[in-house]
Design brief:
The protein is mainly α. It has helices spanning 13-26, 31-34, 39-71.
C-alpha cells in the first residue's frame, strides 16, 4: 500500500493532512497503525478520512467565500 503524502503546491495541503489525522484519531488509528491493518480495512479508513477532509475543506471554503461576499463593498 502507498503512503499518505502532502500534495505539492496545494495551499490547503497541511490542513488537509491535519484533518485526515483528526479522522484517523477519532477511529483510534494513526497513519502508522493504518499501515498494519488488512488492506481492505485500511482502504476503508483512508477513504473515509479523505471524504471527511474533503467535506471539511469544502465547508471552510464556502464560509470564506460567504464572508468575502458579505464584506464586499456595494
Amino acid at each position: 500500500m502507498g503512503t499518505i503524502t502532502e500534495a505539492r503546491g496545494d495551499p490547503n495541503g497541511s490542513l488537509e493532512q491535519q484533518l485526515i489525522d483528526e479522522y484517523l484519531e477519532s477511529r483510534g488509528q494513526t497513519r502508522r497503525s493504518v499501515r498494519d491493518l488488512p488492506e481492505p480495512q485500511a482502504f476503508r479508513l483512508l477513504r473515509g478520512a479523505s471524504d471527511y477532509a474533503s467535506l471539511r475543506l469544502a465547508k471552510i471554503d464556502a464560509r470564506a467565500h460567504y464572508v468575502d461576499v458579505i464584506h464586499r463593498p456595494v
